[in-house]
Amino acid sequence: PRLKDLRAQLTPAFLAKLHALLRRRTVRVELPLTKAEARYTLNTTLFRTGVRQAFMPGAEFSGLVPTGEVRVGDFLHKATLVLDEGRPADDDAAPRQASSTAAQQPADVELALTRPFLFVLRRSGDGCILLVGVVRELKEPQQQ
């Protein structure tokens, strides 16, 4: 199936049904180092849900700003997902190597992501969808 067709099916009910079919397995995953970013303006969404006053001239922000007319111009949301070998995100100088423990464990399934893929991050307790994304550009890991 095409990614956009699959993405259209990703309802909470579909994911709950899919999750019920999963079984615990040891999986060895090979994937490119990936950084996915998204940025959205939430003005319209907030306005539709009743948050209007903050965007209007004369909005009440006296608890934040003592004087002057202040209002919200744009309310932005940015999400960044980094897929790597578990290094801290700001540690670009660290050598890139897989965990020796993970490399030694035998895997029931091996999966190499060499094509564009879709990912879903769900909260384990209630299945709430936290993030859905598509990685289209795959880059080879840099040798160090």
Automatic annotation (TrEMBL):
A Pfam cross-reference name: Serpin
Keywords, ordered alphabetically: Protease inhibitor, Serine protease inhibitor
Region (Disordered) residue spans: 86-105
Taxonomy, superkingdom: Eukaryota
Annotated Serpin domain residues: 3-136
GO molecular function, one term: serine-type endopeptidase inhibitor activity
InterPro entries from the UniProt entry: Serpin_dom, Serpin_sf, Serpin_sf_1, Serpin_sf_2
Protein's name according to its UniProt entry: Serine protease inhibitor
Upper taxonomic lineage: Eukaryota, Metazoa, Ecdysozoa, Arthropoda, Chelicerata
